[in-house]
Amino acid sequence: MTEFLRRPIVALVLLVALNITLLSVQIRNESGRTLLRSWSLAVFTPVAWSVHSLTGGLAGALSRYVFLYRAGEERTRLIEENGRLRVELTKLRNVEQLLARVPDFELVRQQYAFATRPAAVIWKSPPFYSQRLLINAGTRQGVKVDTAVIVPHGIVGRVIATTPFTSEVELITNGGAGAGALLADSRLQGIIRGDGSQTLSWNYIPSYEKAEVGQTIYTSGTDRIYPKGIPIGRIISSAKGNKIHREIRVKPNVDFLRLEEVLIVARN
Amino acid sequence: MTSRVCTFNDPVLFAQGFRRMRKLNAVVHKWEVGFLLLLCSGLQVLCAHYFRVALYLDLTLILVLYVGWYSGPSAGAATGTAFGLVQDAIYRTFLGLNGLSKTVAGFAASLLSRAFRLEDLFSRIILITAVSALDSGLVYLMLLLLEQNIGQRFWLDSLIKALVTGIAGGIGSRFYDHFKFPKKDFRRVGI
C-alpha cells in the first residue's frame, strides 16, 4: 500500500484531487450549494438512473409477463375502486358548488389549489446516514429548490438540489427539516420537525392545550412550501414536558422505506 | 558466475538503481525547502502589500521548479501543493487554485529535469517560461470550470509574467546553483 502511494502518478492524482476538493468546497453555485455537492450529484445521477431503469425494466417485465395471471383479479378491483371514486368525486363537486356561493370563496380556494406531477424515486440514502432521496424530475420538468414533494396520504419532504433531470429531496424526518402544522379538530398550530428518527416532533404547543394520541395533524401552509391541508401523521405520544410546551411525537403517514412514487407540487 | 546488471527488464534492480540515482541527486534538503517556503512567503507578502508590480515575478513557481529539478516527481508535486496553497492564502484567492497549478508544475519539473540538461542558462529560461505559461493555462482552465470572472488582461499579464519569471528564474536559479555547489561536476547530473 505504501509503495502504491509512493508512485509519482498516484501522488499527483491525490494532490490534484485535494486541491480540486478545496476549490469546490469554497465556491458556490447560483442556488448557494457548493460545487462539490453539485458535481457529486451530477456524477451520481447517471448511476442512479441506470440502476433505476434496469431494476424498473426487470420489475416491469416480471409484472407484465410472469404475474399476468393476476391481471383479471386486479381489473375487477380497479373497476370497483373507479366506481367508488366517481361517487366521491360527484359528492365533492357538489360541495364545491355549494361553497362557491359563499362570498370570497375564491380567496379561500386558492390556498388549497395546487397541481401535481408524478415522479419516481430512483435512489434512497441509507436511513442511518441522512434521509434524502433522488427523484427522476428536475429543472426541465419545472422543479425548483423548495418545491414540496408529497404522496396522496402525506407529505414526503422538499427539494433541496436540482439537476436538469433529477432532484434531491430532503425527507421531513431528516434532522433540521420542518413544516407548519395544525391539528384537524382544534385548528391548533405549531411546527413539525424531523430529528433523524422515524417519528416527528410537534413543537410550540402550549402545555394547557389539548393534543391527544390518535389525532391527525395537517400542513398549515404557513411555511410557504407545503400546501395547506395535506395530512402529515398521527399523534403517538403527548406529554406535558416542560411547563410551557407539550412534548408531542407524531408518526408520519408516509412509510419512507417503501416509497416508490411521489407527487411534486406545482403551486398556482 | 553471472553478474546482475541493472536493466529495464528487471523491475527490482531497476527500482534499486533508481533509488540510488535519486539519493545521488537529492541535494535539496527538507530544511532547505522549509527555508525557501518561508523566504518566498515573506517576499510575497511584502510584494502583495507594497510593490504589486513585482507580482509579475512568480517566485513560488521558480522555487517549486527548483525543488522539482532536484527531487522526485512526488516530492516536486507535494512542494508545489504546499507553496501554491501558501500563495493562495497570501493573494487571498480561492485556496487550491495556485495549489493545483503548482502541483502539476512541480511534477512536470521533476520529469522534465530527466529529459533536458538544465545546466545551460538558456534552457532553464525556456523551461521556466514554458512552465509559467502552462501554470497560467491551468489557472485559466480552473477559473473557467468554476464559472468565475476572468479579467480581460489575463493573457497579456500571463505573457509578461511568463517572460519575467523565465528570465529572472533562469538567472536566479543558476546563481543559486553556483552558490550552493561551487565545485559541482555537472557532468554527473542526469545519470
Structural write-up:
The complex is a heterodimer of chains A (268) and B (191). Chain A has a six-stranded antiparallel beta barrel with strand order 1-2-5-4-3-12. Chain A is an alpha+beta fold and 268 residues long. Chain A has helices at 2-6, 8-26, 35-66, 71-100, 105-112, and strands at 114-124, 132-135, 148-151, 154-162, 167-171, 178-183, 189-194, 200-203, 216-219, 231-239, 247-252, 261-267. The model of chain A has no long low-confidence stretch (mean pLDDT 81). Chain A starts with a helix and ends with a strand. Chain B has 191 residues and is an all-alpha fold. Chain B has one domain (19-178). In chain B, 72% of the residues lie in helices and 0% in strands. In chain B, α5 packs antiparallel against α6 (121-145). Mean pLDDT of chain B is 76; it is low at 1-8 and 186-191. The chains are: A alpha+beta (268), B mainly alpha (191).
Which helices and strands appear, and what pairs or packs with what?
The complex is a heterodimer of chains A (268) and B (191).
Chain A: H1 2-6, H2 8-26, H3 35-66, H4 71-100, H5 105-112, E1 114-124, E2 132-135, E3 148-151, E4 154-162, E5 167-171, E6 178-183, E7 189-194, E8 200-203, E9 216-219, E10 231-239, E11 247-252, E12 261-267
Antiparallel strand pairs in A: 1-2, 1-12, 2-5, 3-4, 3-12, 4-5, 6-7, 6-9, 7-8, 8-11, 9-10, 10-11
Chain B: H1 11-25, H2 30-50, H3 59-69, H4 73-91, H5 97-115, H6 121-145, H7 154-180
Helix pairs in contact in B: 2-3, 2-4, 3-4, 3-5, 3-7, 4-5, 5-6, 6-7
